Automatic annotation (TrEMBL):
The lineage of its organism: Bacteria, Bacillati, Bacillota, Clostridia, Eubacteriales. Residues 8-337 form the Glycoside hydrolase family 57 N-terminal domain. It comes from the Bacteria. One of its GO terms (molecular function) is 1,4-alpha-glucan branching enzyme activity. Signal peptide: none annotated. Substrate binds at R241, G258, W404, D464. The keyword Ribonucleoprotein does not apply. It holds the Pfam family BE_C. Keywords: Carbohydrate metabolism. This is 1,4-alpha-glucan branching enzyme.
Amino acid sequence: MTKGYVSIVLHSHLPFTRHPDDEDALEERWLFEAINECYLPLIIAYDELIQEKINFKITMSITPTLMTMLQDEYLNKRYLEYLTKSIELSDKELIRTENSAELFRVANFYNKRFKNLLETYEKYDFRIMNAFKKFDKVGCLEIITCSATHGLLPLLLVNKETVKAQIATAVESYSECLGHAPKGIWLPECAYTYELDSLLKEYGLEYFIGENTAVLNASPKPNYGTYAPISSKNGVAVFGRDIEASHQVWSNYMGYPGDVNYREFYRDIGHELDMTYVAPYINQNGIRVDTGIKYYKITGATENKDIYNRNKAMEMVKQHAEHFIKSREFQINRVSDHMTVKPIITCPYDTELFGHWWFEGTDFIKEFIKSLNKELTNFEMITPSEYLEKHPIVQCCTPAASTWGENGDFSVWLNHTNDWIYREIHKCARKMISLADMYNEPDPLIERALNQAARELMLAEASDWSFIIKNDTTVNYAIKRVKSHVEIFNTLYIEILNNEVDSDKLLKIEEIDNIFPNINYQIYKSNSNLIKE
């Protein structure tokens, strides 16, 4: 008997890292690694489940920046080159490791894996979105959107028009790709504040994924905590993250990915083998980077790592999948008798955790679904929109301001290391609004410049840059990206006002920052109602 539901929600996001002006941009590898380790393996898993006639329901956000990159001809060409080199390196590894039975088994695994990735990529005509579109049509995958460039919306509300532009552009680009409007949205960083739900409602969005505190600290206090969605006064539902399910996957202490039998992330041959051997497969400037070929398992808190055993890792995947199922059953048994509606356990995760940081993560998702299909359980998988169809009457509460970042507030994205970003983008936003209000029917060149100015502003607004700076990772790149977009915006702003747009320079900018080809600068008009359902 079905007593409740579990909703797996995967947040798929990468910042717009397209650099045709750089022969071997390190940041483009973020996308290529994610395709190799996360997106294609998930597609393979979904295909296998469909072929085995196993019913499942998964929700995935695919952010507009990622969706754009997955459809970009230049990036797909570069990815194919990357994957071809991965196969070439794995062929060489079969020779290099032939005298060690343990290493050779792992090398052979990678060789077959990379070739399977290529076969799947070819199957979908070298466009990964073709696969996700298929799953969307079949009904096993509900794709939701995010803000246009993953801008942290509460911190952009200084200029409300910029938030409307982020949401409107996201809805439009999603609809252009998938042929229908999105029902839900993953708010970037799960960041919510009170003014957002009216804007979400305005653009036809029925629900969003929130941090647990958005629900638990709502007013009035929700009857069922995060075991049921709540609805804002505007009728937008909020699904709160379940902490227990999150900890089992995310936690450094109790999380599945830390099991000693899983693959060690930090040991890659790109950093360990002779430079002359790996040189063709790392950065052209000689910067050592990951190749994706890693021979060791976590083993424990030691530098002496044992060789990865794929079979043993898959045994642990099955155990962890079964444990995850039993844990959700226990939760639902505990709360269902005290509820007048069937509970839903919302399990939101970053997609990139599954396959990249946790190599076996995509296998875990597949095994969870397969085990669920075999066993008699008290719950079913469901998407948030399907839950709302089954249970349309939702308690009305005002969600609390929150994020899923450290401290549950906005301090990760606004602090002494990165606050300068917001001073710059708020200035640009005010200029963009004034330009949109000023120009109603510009000539074609000015219109192109206005549209490009809108793109540059949105790209500067990405939350990734302030996050990177706070966490002290690729800081120089993040600073460069913000300053570059702001500088281009300001140059275009002056040229537009002076009616002196340099068409040659504009064309070069358009060719590099080519996101949202159908963007309309008029979405920044004061009180604009453009692209509204």
